[in-house]
Design brief:
Layout: E1 2-7, H1 10-21, E2 37-40, E3 45-50, H2 55-60, E4 66-70, H3 71-77, E5 81-86, E6 92-99, E7 110-114, H4 117-125, E8 131-135, H5 142-145, E9 151-156, H6 160-164, E10 167-176, E11 178-183, H7 184-189, H8 191-203, H9 208-211
């Protein structure tokens, strides 16, 4: 039985469709249920629905053998897992954004609002820039608008929310997309099956052109 951690929501629906396409179907998952664990013994698969940011935790601790998580989460948490495949969807970027007229005053510590604390610290440490981090979990765009921070570090997909709030991207930090990950010991135990999954998913990987 292969245990697969699926992120809840639209991303999870898309991931499940991919696994269904390569033979790991679980009809019960397609129904209207509040269950969090679904399995198909005949296909040898068990799915868990978890918060997207928690997928790597379940995989790292072997509660799941494999899972799908955003690269942004991997960069932030650095879990002890194998990153096997870029699935090509869920594309966005980690970026520094601020009000349109922002200018950096390097004589003062830069106030940065973000939920990506580790990514932010590493990014600015590489520039020897002194910063003060304001840890937020939602509505991060509000921080510079209300004077809570000078800039934000967040994921940006289309940039629409930034534009509507008179904010702009000033620097890109790293690209992000959905990644297939595996528990290290599970990979050794289920190597043939997981390698087969990687090969089949790679055939269905979405290119940036297809996404457009």
């Amino acid at each position: 039985m292969i245990n697969i951690a699926l992120p809840k929501g639209r991303l999870g629906d898309k991931v499940y469709k991919l696994f269904d396409d390569i033979g790991f179907s679980c009809p019960e998952l397609e129904g209207d249920s509040r269950k969090l664990v679904f399995e198909n013994e005949e296909k040898g698969v068990r799915y868990f629905l978890v918060k997207p940011s928690d997928v790597s935790i379940y995989v790292a601790h072997k509660a799941a053998d494999i899972g799908v998580v955003g690269k942004d989460v991997l960069l932030e948490t650095e879990p002890s897992v194998y990153e096997l495949l870029d699935l090509g969807f869920g594309r966005c970027r980690l970026a520094v954004a601020a009000k349109n007229n922002w200018k950096d005053d390097t004589s003062l510590p830069l106030r940065v609002a973000t939920k990506y604390v580790n990514v932010t610290q590493k990014y600015y440490a590489a520039q020897n820039r002194q910063i003060e981090i304001v840890k937020l979990n939602g509505s991060i765009e509000l921080a510079p608008i209300l004077g809570l921070s000078d800039v934000i570090v967040d994921i940006v997909e289309t940039g629409t929310t930034l534009k509507e709030n008179n904010l702009s991207v000033f620097y890109d930090i790293a690209p992000s997309s959905a990644r297939l990950i595996a528990n290290k010991s599970s990979y050794q135990f289920h190597k043939a099956t997981i390698d087969s999954i990687v090969r089949e998913l790679a055939k269905r990987r979405e290119s940036p052109k297809e996404r457009e």
